[in-house]
Write a structure and sequence with these properties.
Length: 137
């Protein structure tokens, strides 16, 4: 599936839809192949995986995209689920990688229909579980 300037593999859309509708993944991490400019699935988290597993799957020195299915209970005691799209660009990553991920982000976002919140993070504190909890209301 090609969108403007980026080739998003069918596996990307499929894994997102499996997470969203079938709930067979807790999160999906995507990476870009710099030569082909193709977005592919890097890792998936099992349904029982937690936020810590997502954070641990992101490299310290390279960029990634991730979607995370966050379950919570509202003040009215209603169970809810919100999907977060995270652009991970740590300080230690190369400038070229940061630019590429920033440029191709919208192409992937168009394919992933149903994301509730969009976040950018350069270190783990910017995407901590407390930050996610505060946004999911």
């Amino acid at each position: 599936m090609a969108t403007i300037g980026v080739n998003v593999s069918e596996e990307c859309r499929k894994s997102f839809m499996e997470m969203k509708w079938k709930r067979v993944h807790r999160f999906v991490v995507y990476k870009i192949d710099e030569r082909s400019r193709a977005v592919t699935v890097d890792k998936v988290g099992a349904p029982g995986a937690g936020y810590e597993d997502l954070a641990a799957s992101l490299p310290d020195d390279d960029c990634r995209y991730a979607v995370y299915d966050f379950d919570f209970v509202t003040v009215d005691n209603c169970p809810r689920s919100k999907i977060f799209f995270i652009t991970w660009a740590p300080s230690a990553s190369r400038i070229r990688a940061k630019m590429l991920y920033a440029t191709l982000k919208e192409g992937l976002r168009r394919v992933l229909e149903g994301v509730h919140y969009d976040m950018q993070a350069t270190d783990p504190t910017e995407m901590g579980i407390d930050v996610i909890r505060s946004r999911a209301r």
